[in-house]
Write a structure and sequence with these properties.
Order of helices and strands: EEEEEEEEHEEEHHHHHHH
Number of strands: 11
Mean pLDDT: 82
Low-confidence stretches: 230-236, 274-288
Length: 331
């Protein structure tokens, strides 16, 4: 089972998805491996069988919107092996991009972070909406343990009527998953709602960058989301919030909440000293030179522990950071 990745420009294996084989009243199923391969049993069907791909695992489920299951049914009946590649721009490719982000966060390398399924007694429900929303996605609402969707991702959103790149849907799924974990680790929706918007969005943006950058660099895009490939007039990588957002001191609006606060605590780059040689067309008109950022050395996993330790505002966050600072960092 493969899916077309519109950022990479070719089809990639879809790992972890459920494949079902239906023959009369019997259904066999298994899950694909890292190569997208699956095997249920040897031999073939004399009278043929019908295959399906179900976008779910034992830890999470991708829905077709708010309630229905996201799936694909093959129309033909086969007596031998079945292969499928979800084509560019197809609904199933969109489901696959959401699934890939959810699979990475719930099963893959997330640098020591806690996954959404690590908190939930029920499967985490990702709603993949084949419609246009006012935002790319949302999450961190009231958890209903499988009744309603926990995380919602829209195929289109305001300002983007055509198909988003695969990495954007993947990144949005990562971003909203980070919100879901943050809500859980704070003790629930009431406590989470009291956390500063800047902390909430800066954390999800940082997690989005760390995981999406690793995902696509490991697939061969060595400069993906690097400091030198953030904005151009034709190719913005990634087309979402997973990048270093250098804000002017007098910046206003919702963008000020999507800051590089947590990125700066982990990385070794000081944007204030390095901006003079980074070319970002059409960018300085709003964002300008970044803040002085001499701090580095916090691990990603350590930052999550600090985040969940009653960090509601910048003051309490600063106190927790100082109380848990790496050996090379001073107050």
């Amino acid at each position: 089972v493969k899916t077309f990745d519109s950022r990479l420009g070719y089809a990639i294996p879809l790992e972890g998805v459920r494949v079902e084989c239906h023959r009369f009243l019997t259904t066999f199923f298994t899950f694909t491996n890292s190569n997208g391969d699956y095997s249920m049993f040897p031999g073939s069907f004399t009278f043929g069988a019908q295959y399906s791909v179900i976008f779910e695992t034992n830890r999470f489920d991708v829905r077709s919107g708010g309630l229905g299951q996201a799936y694909y049914d093959a129309s033909e009946r086969l007596s031998g092996p079945w292969h499928i590649t979800f084509g560019q721009g197809s609904l199933e490719a969109f489901y696959s991009d959401v699934f890939r982000g959810a699979y990475r966060y719930n099963y893959g390398n997330i640098f020591g972070l806690v996954s959404p399924s690590g908190f939930s007694l029920a499967k985490v429900k990702y709603g993949a909406y084949n419609s246009q929303g006012s935002v790319e996605g949302d999450g961190g609402g009231i958890h209903t343990y499988g009744l309603f969707t926990d995380i919602r991702i829209w195929r289109y959103y305001s300002g983007l009527a055509s198909n988003p790149k695969s990495d954007q849907t993947f990144a949005s799924t990562i971003h909203e998953s980070a919100h879901e974990v943050h809500r859980f680790c704070m003790g629930g929706s009431i406590q989470f709602d009291d956390v500063s918007d800047k902390i909430v969005e800066s954390w999800a943006s940082a997690v989005e960058l760390w995981i999406t950058r690793d995902e696509y660099q490991s697939r061969g895009l060595s400069d993906y989301a690097s400091l030198y490939v953030l904005f151009t007039t034709s190719n913005f990588q990634p087309i979402s919030l997973g990048h270093q957002l250098w804000l002017k001191a007098n910046a206003t609006g919702d963008n000020i909440n999507y800051s590089n606060l947590f990125i700066d605590l982990e990385d070794t780059f000081n944007q204030a000293g390095g901006m003079n040689y980074i070319s970002l067309p059409n960018y300085f008109s709003y964002y300008g030179i970044g803040h002085n950022d001499p701090i580095s050395g916090y691990s990603i996993a350590q930052l999550q522990i600090i985040l969940c330790n009653s960090s509601y505002g910048l003051s309490s966050l600063a106190t927790n950071l100082k109380n848990n600072k790496p050996s090379n960092v001073t107050n």
